[in-house]
């Protein structure tokens, strides 16, 4: 507000300095123009705009990208409805948020799902396969592998310290998470105590697309070292078909004889396919 002398009401020493400048011939600053209520700065909205004319909203939208606020809307939908309320590409977007700041990642999320053919294949792709993609840098690769690691840790936590026979589906879910996406066969042995609780889960062999080596004496040796009383065998079929082969039946019989010789029971041999699995115990083969 202007004072009677034409200057501005400032305080204490500032006022004295300003009046001294006026006495030496300096011109006072003009009164600022009145604020246009429709000309609110876009980057600094300060009032409740519901009381402003409609064109104020249009002014505020000018210069903003089309995805303005999209990340927050996705987060809000996730907070309200969980993952079931989001399509796959929005889950991928949320994973990418930490790797790609301040950029619309929806096109990238959709492109990655298309290139890797599914959400599962994207999330379980090897680090090498991810790094070969031209749009995936180290940060994006890190976030995707972190998502896979969290899923595997959670699946394993559902098995540890729980009776395996009382939670067969949890065991299957765990191995589907860790093995279902592999493009070569892997053979694993799960060592249990006398209450069917997990002692150890170990990879015993890794082979080709249709064969993996399995050594009964090695599995028996590891069972003794773990002081296990029961064992579950698991391997995957990269073809997606969990139907046992003749070699699978023969290997299962050899494993059963080797474990029986040290008084360890073979509870099951599970083959993990793309969508289903086969249990030798359910088939009556054990």
Give a summary of the structure in a few sentences.
With 286 residues, the protein is α+β, with helices and mostly antiparallel strands. The protein has helices at residues 12-23, 54-61, 70-81, 88-97, 106-116, 119-123, 127-131, 138-157, 168-179, 216-225, 246-260, 280-283; strands at 186-192, 198-206, 230-236, 265-272, 277-279.
What's the helix and strand layout?
Blueprint: H1 12-23, H2 54-61, H3 70-81, H4 88-97, H5 106-116, H6 119-123, H7 127-131, H8 138-157, H9 168-179, E1 186-192, E2 198-206, H10 216-225, E3 230-236, H11 246-260, E4 265-272, E5 277-279, H12 280-283
Parallel strand pairs: 3-4
Antiparallel strand pairs: 1-2, 1-3, 4-5
Helix pairs in contact: 4-5, 8-9, 10-11
Oligomer: single chain
Low-confidence stretches: 1-10, 37-61
Shape: elongated
Mean pLDDT: 78
Give the strand line-up of the largest sheet.
2-1-3-4-5
Query: What is the structural class?
Result: alpha+beta
The fraction of residues assigned to DSSP E strands is 5-15%
The H-and-E topology, N to C, reads as HHHHHHHHHEEHEHEEH
What is the count of β-strands?
A: 5
Radius of gyration: 33 Å
| Total helical segments | 12
The major beta sheet can be summarized as: 5 strands, mixed
Helix content: 40-55%
Distance between the termini: 94 Å
């Amino acid at each position: 507000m202007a004072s009677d002398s034409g200057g501005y009401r400032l305080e204490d020493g500032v006022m004295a300095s300003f009046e001294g400048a006026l006495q030496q011939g300096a011109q006072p600053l003009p009164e600022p123009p009145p604020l246009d209520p429709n000309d609110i700065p876009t980057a600094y909205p300060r009032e409740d705009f519901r009381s402003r004319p409609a064109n104020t909203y249009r002014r505020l939208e000018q210069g903003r990208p089309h995805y303005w606020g999209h990340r927050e809307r996705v987060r809000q939908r996730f907070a309200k409805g969980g993952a079931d309320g989001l399509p796959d590409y929005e889950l991928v977007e949320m994973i990418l948020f930490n790797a790609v700041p301040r950029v619309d990642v929806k096109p990238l999320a959709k492109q990655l799902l298309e290139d890797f053919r599914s959400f599962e294949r994207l999330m379980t792709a090897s680090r090498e396969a991810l790094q070969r993609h031209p749009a995936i840098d180290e940060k994006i690769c890190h976030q995707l592998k972190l998502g896979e690691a969290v899923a595997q840790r959670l699946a394993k936590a559902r098995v540890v310290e729980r009776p395996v026979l009382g939670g067969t589906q949890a065991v299957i879910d765990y191995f589907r998470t860790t093995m279902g996406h592999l493009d070569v066969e892997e053979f694993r042995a799960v060592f249990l105590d006398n209450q069917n609780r997990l002692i150890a889960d170990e990879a015993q062999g890794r082979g080709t697309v249709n064969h993996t080596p399995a050594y009964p004496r090695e599995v028996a040796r590891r069972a003794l070292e773990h002081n296990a009383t029961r064992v579950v065998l698991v391997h995957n079929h990269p073809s997606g078909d969990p139907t046992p082969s003749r070699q699978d039946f023969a290997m299962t019989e050899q494993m059963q004889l080797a474990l029986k010789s040290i008084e360890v029971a073979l509870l099951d041999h599970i083959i993990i396919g793309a969508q289903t699995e086969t249990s030798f115990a359910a088939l009556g083969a054990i």
